[in-house]
Automatic annotation (TrEMBL):
Subcellular location: Cell membrane
Primary location: membrane
Residues in Band 3 cytoplasmic domain copies: 73-342
Any one GO biological process: monoatomic ion homeostasis
Ranges of residues in domain Bicarbonate transporter-like transmembrane: 440-614, 640-941
Lineage of the organism: Eukaryota, Metazoa, Spiralia, Lophotrochozoa, Platyhelminthes
Protein known as: Slc4a-7
Gene3D superfamilies named among the record's database cross-references: Helical hairpin bin, Mannitol-specific EII, Chain A
Primary gene name: slc4a-7
Topology with respect to the bilayer: Multi-pass membrane protein
Keywords: Cell membrane, Ion transport, Membrane, Transmembrane, Transmembrane helix, Transport
Annotated family: Belongs to the anion exchanger (TC 2.A.31) family.
Entry superkingdom: Eukaryota
Length: 1004
């Protein structure tokens, strides 16, 4: 519980040593494990048991609650259970609520899955009648469990409903033990009583030789060490799920066959009582609701206990109960609870599909209810402030400024409205142009921001909280970067230039990753060779052959023009276009490249197959016969192994997103699906297809490393040998690559800085673009390395490995992202490890090329399946009644969805046609049309579609902007400085955790 300062207005707790009594020793708990756990928690600062004020001042409970915020509750429903093995009674846990309801299974000795609580109108009526007829104490001043038992005993005697024998049965039932998870049911029955009832004094008393402990009434010798350890672990796990300052509520329903009437007592304690054993965890007890009744009303009374537990789990009802002064206040709170509930008719055929279709209505009612309550709350605050201001200023009558009457006010409002009219078109153009000036302004403030965050990026990598996450994430991120580097290295060597080897790709990938992490403005990003770069390089190689120009010289001048364009782009603050990126433009771009993944791999594999098979007789020409047979064998086996790897990786993703196996093991399978697929294909190749001599990676052994193969420096003496026409080609290709890189770098940065990632530090977009579009191309052309760009899929995987998840989520609440380890250590180590992978040539040379093609197919399939464009296209093939409830479908007319999907697919098909034509030497010039059509779609989306009245009504919902904000020059705080800004976990407000729900795409 939180301490509060003492004042005349808020006399809640009093820190007087004479009134604070904490004399209950830890030896009350069987074994020493719970004591050690409490001490460790106090040392860690998570919760203090002895520093809390145990007793409150004797004031009105309503006054106390009004001046404090209503805490969260652990609600437990215990029933009187007859153990069939021992024929003895004990209190056993039936249900509990933290956020959702959990029912305890006595046979399995575990709680079932958390679920949304349901109650009946009949149960509400039973509760209302029983609560009216029962006893309630809203100012209960008790110090321990003995006082609680005596209070209930007094209420039973005052009711005059039970005879002497029935009273004795109830008193004996009250002192029975409470069974919880981790305790053996047979050992809960007491062997030596510690609490007994004194009939002369008519109250409960304690024996001098025993500890007054209602929760563990058993002999110390009957307790084993393993049982205690299990119990302590169960308590600790449950306590960690509770927010700080949580309290407990205990509901006891006892059915005794010897009594004929019903009695209930509600107690709200002025001060919470710490009593281990009553609840499932060591939690201060605030509310107690005890019910005893006959066997004939068992079902009714159990329903009453559930109804009260369900209502207490609601924050609004709990707040009214904490403020209640009488039973009528609680009954009024139950009426308000019913008003904010939805009634579902119990049809005879209730199926899963029927309930799924009720979700939109339930969400609508829930949102409407919360909105109305919020409006009432604001109205109450407004009326209270207005009342206070009227009271404070009733003697003040001072007017400042002109005194307008109603007519003057109306005319004045018109003048103000005219002043606030939207600016003209010319003013808009002028304001837009001003954003590009002064030159290098955005780069300057990004460099300033990078200076502020630079040291903290290194310090945060060595904090106690981040170090374990970084250590485990480095291994995952290493394979994320290594696999594409090997794949693209093999494809570059085969389809672009023999001088571009796997060794060169490993060296360049590691070097660029290390440099980028050291100087960029978002260390979570990963750079590498992407499909965009590979396609341009592949077309560039074909164009160089057709024009008769050396590829190295052509790449050099393209890099020069690309760097110049990037410099001009940075000079005029081009990063301001990043917040203007639309999701639909990004989807068209990524959907196109996912298709290219598939086409590139399929074209390469089918190209290896002969167009026709010629039958030769072995006696005529044995050499031709063997060559034809090997071609078909190698080509068919390559296709088979590639498809096998595709299906294997997809199956691992399905396991990762499913419910099989443990969560940790599923996560490991999803993280290392591509390396596992490569291992599988390599093993099958050498076990079953070794006779075909399948093509493998071309990489030298570890003892035959040639450093000269790491670079491919062009011949600078021939730089001026290109003609004017050739320079024009280079300039056009430079423009094409510039536009592609701008889109890809911006998309990569946006994907890393999504709102649901909850990053604390700003991303410096201008600095990132300056590195990748201006600096890195210069390095690439002088060393002969491929051009590099931001790798969005690899960056997302790196962010996933650095994510911080809510470790202590309440049952039924999925884990969500609460932040990331924003540091530079992991990216630097990954770059160094990838660079050192050149010494693994003796192992990598056994990997068949089929695994690389399979990886391309897998990346293409996964890239398409996770896109909203593809999901909308799949749903359009179904009837609307079969659609699931998603934001990209909910509340949008079918015509609007169909129109936007058709427009997007039209431009995707055009881009694919451009790519296919560019593969032929005659039509290689069509590559220059790529940026033109991307720009045309962006213009149509930005200016034409919003002017379409029928489409404009839902366009902003179908195609939202990214929540991106450029760095504005404010100070960048480190993680240590912003820990206090983290919001407390409030599961009731965590309605949509998808976002924050766990990102496990399973792709690289």
């Amino acid at each position: 519980m939180h301490h509060q300062k003492i004042s005349a207005d808020n006399p809640v707790y009093e820190e007087d040593e004479n009134e604070i009594k904490d004399d209950q020793p830890d030896s009350e708990v069987a074994g020493g494990e719970l004591k050690q756990w409490r001490n460790s928690i106090e040392q860690e600062g998570d919760m203090s048991f002895h520093d809390q004020p145990i007793y409150m001042k004797k004031e009105s409970s309503a006054t106390t609650i009004c001046q404090t915020s209503v805490p969260d509750l652990l609600i437990e429903l215990d029933i009187l259970y007859l153990n069939p093995r021992t024929n003895s009674y004990c209190w056993t846990e039936k249900s509990r609520w933290i956020i959702y309801e959990e029912d305890f299974d006595m046979e399995l000795r575990r709680f079932n899955n958390p679920h949304l609580s349901t109650l009946s109108v009949r149960g509400l009526k039973f509760f209302k009648d029983l609560f009216k007829d029962g006893y309630a104490n809203f100012k209960c001043d008790v110090r321990n469990n003995i006082d609680v038992l005596n209070t209930y005993s007094e209420s039973v005697e005052q009711s005059n409903r039970f005879n002497k024998d029935e009273l004795k049965e109830i008193r004996n039932a009250l002192i029975l033990n409470h069974f919880h998870v981790g305790m053996h049911l047979s050992s809960t029955i007491h062997e030596c009583p510690t609490i007994h009832f004194n009939e002369e004094k008519q109250c409960f008393e304690t024996n001098e030789n025993y500890i007054p402990h209602i929760g563990r009434r058993r002999n110390r010798s009957s307790i084993t060490l393993n049982e205690n350890m299990h119990r302590v672990q169960s308590q600790k796990k449950l306590s960690e799920c509770l927010p700080t300052g949580s309290e407990g509520a205990l509901i006891q329903v006892g059915i005794l066959p010897t009594i004929e009437r019903t009695h209930s007592l509600f107690m709200r304690l002025d001060q919470p009582v710490y009593e281990d054993g009553l609840l499932d965890t060591y939690c201060p007890l605030r509310i107690i609701f005890i019910i005893f009744g006959p066997k004939s009303r068992e079902e009714e009374l159990l329903e009453v206990g559930r109804v009260f537990g369900i209502m207490l789990s609601n924050r609004e009802f709990r707040e009214m109960v904490y403020r209640a002064e009488s039973k009528l206040d609680v009954i009024s709170a139950s009426k308000q609870f019913v008003e904010n509930s939805a009634l579902v008719h119990l049809n005879r055929r209730i199926t899963h599909e029927i309930l799924v279709h009720c979700l939109p209505q339930l969400k609508y009612y829930a949102n409407k209810s919360h909105t109305e309550q919020h409006q009432k709350h604001l109205q109450n605050i407004y009326e209270e402030e207005k009342r206070e201001s009227t009271t404070d200023n009733k003697d003040i009558n001072i007017e400042i400024g002109p005194n307008f009457n109603n007519k003057d006010k109306a005319s004045f409002d018109v003048l103000e409205t005219q002043k606030k009219e939207e600016p003209s078109c010319s003013k808009k153009v002028v304001s837009t142009v001003k954003k590009f000036f002064p030159p290098f302004y955005q780069l300057y403030i990004d460099l300033k921001g990078n200076k502020e965050r630079y040291l903290s990026d290194f310090r945060d990598g060595f904090t106690k909280e981040n170090a374990p996450i970084i250590f485990t994430g480095i291994v995952f991120a290493y394979f994320v970067v290594l696999s594409p580097a090997i794949t693209f290295g093999a494809l570059f060597n085969k389809l672009v230039s023999p001088n571009m080897t796997i060794t060169m790709l490993l060296v360049s990938s590691g070097t660029f990753q290390l440099l980028y992490v050291l100087i960029n403005g978002q260390p979570l990003e990963i750079v590498g060779v992407t499909p965009t770069v590979f396609i341009v390089e592949q077309v560039l190689a074909s164009l160089a052959i057709s024009l008769g120009i050396p590829l190295e010289l052509m790449r050099f001048w393209i890099g020069v023009y690309l760097s110049i364009l990037g410099f001009v782009f940075t000079m005029f603050n081009g990063a301001i276009i990043v917040p203007q990126f639309r999701r639909s433009v990004e989807e068209v771009y990524n959907f196109y490249y996912s298709i290219i993944y598939l086409l590139s791999a399929l074209f390469t594999m089918f190209k290896a197959l002969p167009y026709f098979y010629t039958l030769y007789s072995p006696a005529e020409n044995s050499t031709l016969y063997i060559n034809e047979r090997d071609k078909f064998g190698i080509g068919g086996t390559t296709l088979f192994l590639a498809l096998l790897m595709l299906n294997f990786c997809l199956y691992l993703v399905k396991i990762n997103r499913g419910i099989y196996l443990r969560h940790t093991f599923r996560k490991l399978l999803g993280a290392f699906n591509v390396p596992l697929g490569i291992i599988l294909v390599t093993a099958l190749n050498y076990i079953f297809f070794n006779a075909f001599r399948m093509p493998t990676l071309s990489i030298p052994d570890s003892n035959k490393i040639n450093i000269s193969m790491w670079v491919n420096i062009p011949d600078f003496s021939k730089l001026t040998s290109l003609s004017t026409a050739d320079q024009g080609y280079c300039f056009l290709i430079g423009i094409t690559m510039f536009i592609m890189l701008v889109v890809e770098v911006a998309t990569n940065s946006i994907s890393v800085t999504k709102v649901e990632r909850k990053l604390k530090k700003k991303t410096l977009y201008a600095l990132n673009m300056f590195c990748l579009i201006t600096v890195f191309p210069i390095i690439s052309i002088f060393l002969g390395w491929p051009f590099f760009s931001g790798a969005m899929v690899r960056s997302n995987a790196h962010c996933l490995s650095m994510a911080k998840w809510s470790a202590n989520a309440a049952p039924g609440i999925p884990k969500r992202i609460i932040g990331h380890c924003e540091q530079r250590i992991s990216g630097m180590i990954v770059g160094i490890l990838v660079f050192c992978s050149v010494f693994l040539g003796s192992i990598l040379k056994y990997i068949p090329m089929a695994s690389m093609y399979g990886m391309f197919l897998y990346m293409g399939v996964m890239g398409i399946s996770d896109m909203v464009l593809w999901k909308r296209l799949v749903n359009l093939m179904q009837r609307r009644k079969h659609w699931n409830e998603h934001d990209y479908l909910k509340g949008i007319p079918l015509w609007n969805i169909r129109t936007l999907v058709i427009i997007q697919l039209f431009f995707v098909i055009i881009l694919i046609i451009i790519y296919v034509l560019s593969q032929f030497t005659t039509y290689v010039w069509t590559l220059f049309l790529f940026p033109i059509f991307v720009g045309i779609y962006a213009m149509i989306r930005g200016y034409a579609l919003p002017r379409w009245p029928r489409l404009n009504t839902h366009l902003s919902k179908m195609d939202k902007k990214h929540f991106v904000k450029l760095y504005d020059g404010k100070k960048v705080k480190s993680e240590a400085e912003i820990v206090q800004d983290n919001q407390a976990f409030d599961p009731e407000n965590n309605e949509d955790s998808s976002n924050s729900s766990e990102e496990e795409s399973g792709i690289y």
